[in-house]
Amino acid sequence: MPATRRPHSELKAPATTMKTTITLTVNGSPVQAQVEPRALLSDLLREQLRLTGTHRGCDTGQCGACTVHVDGRAVKSCTALAAQFQGTQVTTIEGLAPAGTLHPMQQAFKDQHGLQCGFCTPGMVMSAVDLVRRHPGASEDTIRRELNGNICRCTGYQNIVKAVQQGATAMAAAAASKAG
Amino acid sequence: MNDVNASVEPVHSGPGKKGRREDERLLTGRGRYADDVACAGALHVAFVRSPYPCALIRGIDTAEAKASPGVVAVFTGQDLLTSGFLDTPAPFKLPQGDGSFAHETPRPHLARERVLFVGEPVVMVLAETVNAALDAAERVAVDYDEQPAVVGIDDALAADSVQVWPDRPGNVGYDWRGGDDAKVTTALAASHRVVRLRSHISRVVAAPMEPRSALAQIGEDGRPVLTASHQSPHQLRGEIAPRVGLKPKELRVVAGDVGGSFGMKWGPLREEILVFWAARQLGRAVRWTAQRSESFLSDEHARDLHVMTELGLDADGRFTALRVHYDVNMGAYMSGRSVPPIFNIGGISGVYTTPAVSARVVGVFTHTQTTTAYRGAGRPDATYAIERIIDVAAAETGIDAAELRRRNLIPKEAMPYKTSFQFTYDCGDFAGNLDQALELARYSSFEQRRAEARQRGKLRGIGIAMPAEMAGGVGADWATLRADADGGLTLMPGAMSVGQGHETAFAALVTERMGIPADKLRFLSGDTDLIEAGKGNGGSSALVMGASAVLKAVDDLIRQGTEQAAQKLEAATTDIEFGQGRFRIVGTDRSVGLAELAQAAALAGAGEFTPPSPTFPNGCHICEVEIDGETGHVQVVGYVSVEDVGRVLNPVLVEGQIHGGVAQGLGQSLLEEIRYDENGQLVTGSFTDYTMPRAADMPPIISANREVPTQLNPLGVKGVGEAGTVGAMAATTNAICHALAAVGVPHLDMPATPLRVWQALRDAGYAPAAQ
Q1: What local confidence, expressed as pLDDT, does residue B658 receive?
Q2: CA distance A86 to chain B (A)
Q3: Predicted local confidence at residue B2, as pLDDT
Q4: Least CB-CB distance to B36: which of A52, A97, A155?
Q5: Could you tell me where the DSSP H helices lie in B48-107?
Q6: Which residues of chain B are under the pLDDT cut of 50?
Q7: Fold of B476-609
Q8: Fold (topology level) of B301-471+614-763
Q9: Which residue out of B21, B22, B28 would a mutagenesis test of the A interface target, given it has the greatest number of A Cβ atoms within 10 Å?
Q10: Closest Cα to residue B334, out of B550, B527, B172?
Q11: Closest residue by Cα to residue B486 from B587, B562, B593
Q12: Predicted ipTM of the assembly
């Protein structure tokens, strides 16, 4: 029986796509950008701002390689529209620590060999920082459970878990010395 | 002939608390993966893919797509032919059991007359933006005449099956045989007992976290450049050049950071080649990055084979003969990429003295994505074949699984040992691997833990696998080490990292031998313009071949430097010694540095290494699981890996490879499966449906190195990239089946998902005891 795949006539796009203007703060700097309504936060970061440390690994919010911080909380930037982020403070892996330095969590991943190919790593680090914020002193079980939204294909997670533990300790120490 | 020098001292260096050379860049978002490379004005590609597993193409209407906003070009398979871009097969010639040869099937870059699997590319749309290309792809009308399809191995081999290729009767692409089957027949007939198992190794996909991506543009010198997420730039260049009528030197292929590949990002991949062709055709830069759902459709899959094993034993439990038969689901097309199960079938003889071993491998066509290499590339399958049947034999004979293995091990005193099948082991201490793994896994107290688990309503099992695999044995690899005028050195190895950390490992070899600080060494890899020749990445060969070539380049640089220094210092070369970056006349203070020599004349060392024969990484893995009889959930509660990967140069990197390898084998045994429905539709098309191992699925892994250095290369290394996976698939499945056998389920095929385990338990009449 012949079967014909027909075009989706309802998908006819307008000849020009209306863009909206949004203003937000990215890695501490004010940003004003024109975005299509369907542009994702990851599109804005990667294509317009050229912050290519935020990776896209699955497009469905499963793998977490695109994780960034919005107002201090972890958000998967490939499943959120850029236009939603008017007036927010966005931090990407490039802005996690001042240039030339490493955040304690980045240092921990380096020390513990918590990365191999590095593709999942920016999202993994951003998630880990948020994990520690929500669960200071998390147990190994909690860390493993809370990393459910970040997939790594290279490491088997063992050294990632060790890195998050080291990073958590270092973050607590840094917070304590700041408070003291 | 290689001058093999095994007297080199071990070098324990690289990351410990300091991390890898690569890490800072990758941790701060400064990695450079293919999709990160900026290219203003590049066109974006969307592919129209077949929605049917088998259909005739009656017509393609691209008019509406071409008129779509932002579209620059729309190409069909016929357009490629018309513009002189011909189908170039991947030549393949495999000797079969009857003396004839099997050959590749044709494969167009875009399907023309018919489509043979869901996801096959049919039309290529190029537009100014990704969204414009995707929108226009929806406007292509392809008139398909759907045909009956065949999906599974058994259906394809049935007498009345639909034929995928009219000229490949019975859907058989190849029928390969190895070993002395007549001897096996005789030995099995004379055996005290023969155990048999028919099982299936599931279809999986490599799923590196970085999807495939390619960018083609014109370089500053006017030559075309392809930047691609690929594990062998030289090999890809060699595939592309003849297809587009260029000499290899007339194009450049670059792989920057690659976010995992695992064997899948190798070979003449259609989309990458099309991107390159389209850029030249249109005179514009072109880029394509797969979305993950597209990756599931378009990345070649792996494994998917039936494994039939017969193992003979004498009255004392000694193996008398082994026969293995694979039926491999090759998918729709056959090429040199289709045969990992044959290339690595040597592993079926394992670490045992079995006097007669034979094998037959039948490649079967179906209307599914092609299967190819994935971490282990046939090695995990071979180890599974022998190690799974040993556990079945243990259960049938009542001999403990560790004891049964011990009775049959090749003793280290027998090395070198020629097996009755394909492998000749140069060295190894298999009993030592077993003893150490049993101790680390607390094997002797397993029954106590099982009894304790039973109290909690849990079924506990333990599984052993003793992998032996062939690594690093095909062809040569190369390296260049250049002295720079500023006193630094530049290393350009042919082997490239796709995540392992070769930059760190190779750099350590050079800086220690040359006596220069780490920051004086530049590292360049993965670029066909900078590197004359290179293997790239594959077959656990980077240390065995790539690093050996680096050592030879070091030696060559010192030799040439010595000659130049002798001339400059007016001394005999025999009076010159090298150390800490300087050439000295022995016993004097007269010396010249690398920088001064490099300022005066070009100075570069070249290294090439071809191993005289393959190496054989081997080990013992023990997995322990606990199954919830109520839910079918399997928790891996312990995992031990004892590996002999030869001399260990960098324990941290080796352990990382083992961890990751184990995760992939364990993931396949427990969770992962590419599944088509009975109509040939892919039903696992995203990470929502295809279960990747997460952190909570993985146990803490205890890994130990039992180093037996090989004499086959100057470093004494055997290769580590695939070892973890080779052992893990069999050990994990054995552990699960061990737990289930106690309640009347003799075998369960992977993946041991909760539903499948629960169903098997119910089918066996198992009712969890009331708590």
Answers
A1: 97
A2: 23
A3: 36
A4: A52
A5: 63-66, 77-82
A6: 1-17, 770-771
A7: Aldehyde Oxidoreductase; domain 4 (3.30.365)
A8: Aldehyde Oxidoreductase; domain 4 (3.30.365)
A9: B28
A10: B172
A11: B593
A12: 0.95
